[in-house]
Specification:
Layout: E1 4-9, E2 15-18, E3 24-29, H1 34-43, H2 45-57, E4 71-74, E5 77-84, E6 91-93, E7 98-101, H3 108-137, H4 143-146, E8 152-156, E9 163-165, E10 170-174, H5 182-195, H6 203-212, H7 216-230
Helix pairs in contact: 3-5, 5-6
Length: about 230
């Protein structure tokens, strides 16, 4: 049985999520009784089992050694790491390889994380407005009345979810997004954008997603099969 953490706060609804370490986090209204919470958790048993299984399948890869010639992913392609005795203060990428100074190897993981975070933010700055525009134009004349907007967007450190959308309109994307191929990045971004309009996975959600990303099924399948391979 996974560890279950319950947080009571000022909210009207009860929510449940599975964290990267397999902890089950339940957020409930302050007035919620224990039986109500227990019954809610029990009603989510199948959902929990499915998500816990997915997290196990998407286990973190072997520990990086940051050795000369070790391969690292960026935008779906692999590039070797070149260690130089004298080099830039940080991590450099020249389109063919990653370059790092020998003196900075001890900070290599942080440097790679920062590199991916910066690249993911740059991608979001470009692709978020693009997909927002597609979604808002998908309904023709009525688009003016149905415009969707997000409140905040943040790049976070997450292994389990590449993207997430809250009911408040906040978007969260893992910095690992820039590890993925461009078409998968588009799928993740479009998926979360559509959640601003349909906060579920109903038929209407998938129909809306298909309007802005017709090949989403191929991208979804690719992500399902290759998610673990892309994790850093």
């Amino acid at each position: 049985m996974p560890e279950i953490k319950i947080i009571k706060e000022s909210r009207k609804t009860i929510a449940i999520t599975v964290l990267d370490d397999k902890t089950v986090l339940v957020k409930a209204p302050r007035y919620a009784g224990q039986k109500f919470i227990d019954d809610f958790i029990k009603s989510k048993e199948k959902w929990l089992a499915k998500n816990l299984k997915e997290i196990s399948a998407f286990a973190r890869p072997h520990k990086r050694q940051f050795e000369n010639g070790e391969m690292f992913l960026f935008l779906g392609s692999s590039y070797p790491l070149q260690i130089e005795r004298a080099g830039a203060k940080g991590l450099a990428f020249n389109g063919e390889k990653f370059i790092i100074a020998l003196s900075r190897i001890k900070n290599a993981k942080t440097l790679f994380n920062n590199f991916y975070k910066l690249q993911t933010q740059r991608i979001l700055d470009e692709r978020l407005p693009y997909f927002i525009g597609l979604l808002n134009n998908a309904n023709g004349f009525f688009s003016f009345f149905l415009d969707v907007k997000y409140k905040n967007v943040k790049v976070v450190n997450s292994y389990n979810q590449l993207g997430a959308c809250t009911k408040n309109g906040d978007l969260r994307f893992s910095f690992r997004l820039s590890i993925m191929p461009p078409e998968i990045i588009d799928y993740v971004i479009a998926h979360e954008i559509v959640h601003l309009k349909h906060f579920n996975h109903s038929p209407k959600f998938w129909q809306e997603l298909e309007k802005v990303l017709p090949n989403y099924k191929q991208a979804k399948e690719y992500l399902r099969k290759n998610h673990a391979l892309m994790l850093f």
